[in-house]
């Protein structure tokens, strides 16, 4: 699994081939969290039977989907600038007698569906994250009718039940969405509005999808959810399972070497889940656990529902059961009401816990969220200064963590070739990109290496033993 892409950075993907020759070409640009990356894959899957295959660039595509993120203002605005460029491409294709169907999906579509069609009337389809299974029907309607098709319902039918099974040959690492939506309503966050109420997929569907992924070559599965550790799916016989129970079940799948889950909320880190980290060898010693702030006053204003102390207890307990545990987190500086002493408390939390890597953001007021209307908004210059100070400390910790890995022997899951000839690339247990000299047959295998050197964002290593490691 790659770390969460920044919502300001797009990932371009193309449609899968379903074995037949594609008659039309599809280009998908994805912003935001891994759930969007997973959804883009599902949209490509649902369009493959309609004859859509991969396009290398948007210019040559018969259909372009922008899968968008609404989390901060900058992320949303990117969509509108992209739509401007796509208008030119669409017109150029029309002049050449070709069509381009343009769709906006994801969280901006959900939040600003109407505004998109007003500001960019050349968009054909606007669809929210819960209606991707209706995409083929919307494409057909868009071909028949003029004017944009909008579908931003939260339908009663579940998209997971109606979407085709994901393609199983996605490579050694795979994402599997097990939970969607959020009921937590943090003061600053749009997710409860764009993704809707919490929903947990049932155990049987998750296990079946995981088995398919492993049969197709996945050695690592990252379970995804906006609140993944709040997952409480229906198990066999109607009993409700917790995430820890699901992890024990998935660890039984032969050939599955690694398990991860993201993103978690501190409030839902129960004892069983903490203990599971000490008991399931496939569960990687790495957890992304957003804390947002170290100040109890700001945590309360954020409606996070816990204090800094809970975060300390969780990280301590996890390090007790799994001493090589590493943590990453998300931070927001400049939430309304944040004073210098609150920021100092965040800095103190970072000092105390020590992070392997973290994401930090300036608070961005989002329309319709409670914090946007609160008094005591923090001045932009103050936010800049706090962000700079926090990021300098987080960078220092990241460098120190990477450096502490030098000389260590550990297992790497190799996922592909490196940039230089003869070089192979993979991921450490702590998700760091690792390069080592080796043969192409390492791809999809877990091998023992010794870490030789640390670069700012990756490690280099020497292969010790290329033999396949069997998960315990
Ligand atoms: N579900 C996760 C996070 C989802 S959003 C959680 O509970 O923490 C990913 C990250 O974006 C958040 O952790 C937060 O740090 C950041 N974020 C969300 N809303 C934001 C806003 N309005 N301004 C700045 N950053 C924000
Ligand atoms: Fe947003 Fe809070 Fe829900 Fe995370 S827990 S998705 S930050 S509302
Ligand atoms: Fe962005 Fe929506 Fe994910 S707002 S972070 S794409 S849930």
Overview of the molecule:
The protein has 13 helices and 20 strands. The protein is α/β, with parallel strands linked by helices and 472 residues long. The strands form 5 sheets. Strands 1, 2, 3, 4, 5, 6 and 7 form a 7-stranded mixed beta sheet that branches. It has a 5-stranded mixed beta barrel with strand order 16-17-18-20-19. The chain has a 3-stranded parallel beta sheet with strand order 8-11-12. A hairpin with a 4-residue loop joins strand 19 (446-454) and strand 20. Residues 1-5 and 468-472 have low confidence and may be disordered.
Main sheet characteristics: 7 strands, mixed
What structural category arises from helix and sheet content? alpha/beta
The count of strands amounts to 20
CA-CA gap between termini: 21 Å
CATH topology title of the largest domain: pyruvate-formate lyase- activating enzyme
**Content of β-strand:** 15-25%
**Hetero ligands:** S-adenosyl-L-homocysteine, iron/sulfur cluster, FE3-S4 cluster
